[in-house]
């Protein structure tokens, strides 16, 4: 059966089952997941998310495990994030949060995906300090979690340790970007210090900027341009006052760094 035929059959099954979903909840759920797999394969993220969001997960008609609910909520959130719809994604992340926070919830794959969703949502909403903290936690993920996320076949890969390091450094680089863009204050200073003192940070692309911010040194225009290459579109969008987040962060930092530099100049040095 061709992909087009599978899709046509899936739509037909869902239409028939939806009319009597209260009597065929399990069958409707299975058909929805299969249809979502097809749409996801076509990179129709919104279509796949919309299909899965119709699965009745709070029904009293059947016993649904917390693990299945959390898995579905997180998958839907991830699909909406791929469609750049952080508002819808956040709604499903919230639904999964209380389940994943339970002491007896042990699914490492879902926990990791949930954490990644939260980081991306905070980032998209420009809550950069929260995003930095979540990305930093993701950068510390160990081998057990990675194997749980990637599956048993990953354990057979000869370069699994290298893959884990690359993944963690990517998350650390995202954390560095977000902490640079975050508003100045005691909380940001603590997060900045924690990241700067992490020996891995020297390996990320944005280390030079992170170091300048931490050591309170003036950042030059070429350094700002180099850092800007690492930013995503929402991180370069203009705010209500006409400046980008990066421009505001650099102006604020350079004014503080320059003031500190002049304050430290003594009459003897002049």
From TrEMBL:
Segments forming domain PSMD12/CSN4-like N-terminal: 13-141
Keyword Acetylation: no
GO cellular component, one term: COP9 signalosome
Keyword rRNA-binding assigned: no
InterPro entries on file: PSMD12-CSN4-like_N (IPR054559), PSMD12/CSN4 (IPR040134), WH-like_DNA-bd_sf (IPR036388)
Location within or outside the cell: Cytoplasm; Nucleus
Domain of life: Eukaryota
The entry's keywords: Cytoplasm, Nucleus
Stored PANTHER family: 26S PROTEASOME NON-ATPASE REGULATORY SUBUNIT 12/COP9 SIGNALOSOME COMPLEX SUBUNIT 4, COP9 SIGNALOSOME COMPLEX SUBUNIT 4
Official protein name in the record: PSMD12/CSN4-like N-terminal domain-containing protein
Organism per entry: Hanusia phi
Lineage of producing organism: Eukaryota, Cryptophyceae, Pyrenomonadales, Geminigeraceae, Hanusia
């Amino acid at each position: 059966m061709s992909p087009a035929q599978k899709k046509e059959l899936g739509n037909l099954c869902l239409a028939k089952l939806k009319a009597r979903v209260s009597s065929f909840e399990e069958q409707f759920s299975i058909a929805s997941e299969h249809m979502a797999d097809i749409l996801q394969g076509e990179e129709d993220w919104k279509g796949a998310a919309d299909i899965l969001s119709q699965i009745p997960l709070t029904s009293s008609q059947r016993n649904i495990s917390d693990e299945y609910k959390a898995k579905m909520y997180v998958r839907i959130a991830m699909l909406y994030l791929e469609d750049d719809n952080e508002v819808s994604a956040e709604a499903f992340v919230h639904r999964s949060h209380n389940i994943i926070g339970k002491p007896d919830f042990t699914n490492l794959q879902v926990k990791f995906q949930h954490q990644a969703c939260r980081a991306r949502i905070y980032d998209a909403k420009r809550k950069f300090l929260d995003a930095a903290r979540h990305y930093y936690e993701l950068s510390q993920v160990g081998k057990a979690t990675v194997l749980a996320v990637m599956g048993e076949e990953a354990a057979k890969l000869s370069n699994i340790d290298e893959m884990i390091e690359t993944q963690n450094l990517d998350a650390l680089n995202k954390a560095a970007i977000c902490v640079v863009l975050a508003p100045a204050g005691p909380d940001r200073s603590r997060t900045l210090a924690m990241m700067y003192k992490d020996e891995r940070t020297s390996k990320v692309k944005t280390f030079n900027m992170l170091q300048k911010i931490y050591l309170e040194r003036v950042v030059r225009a070429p350094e700002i341009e180099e850092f800007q290459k690492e930013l995503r579109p929402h991180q370069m969008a203009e705010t209500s006052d006409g400046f980008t987040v990066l421009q505001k962060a650099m102006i604020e930092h350079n004014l503080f760094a320059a003031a500190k530099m002049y304050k430290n100049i003594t009459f003897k040095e002049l």
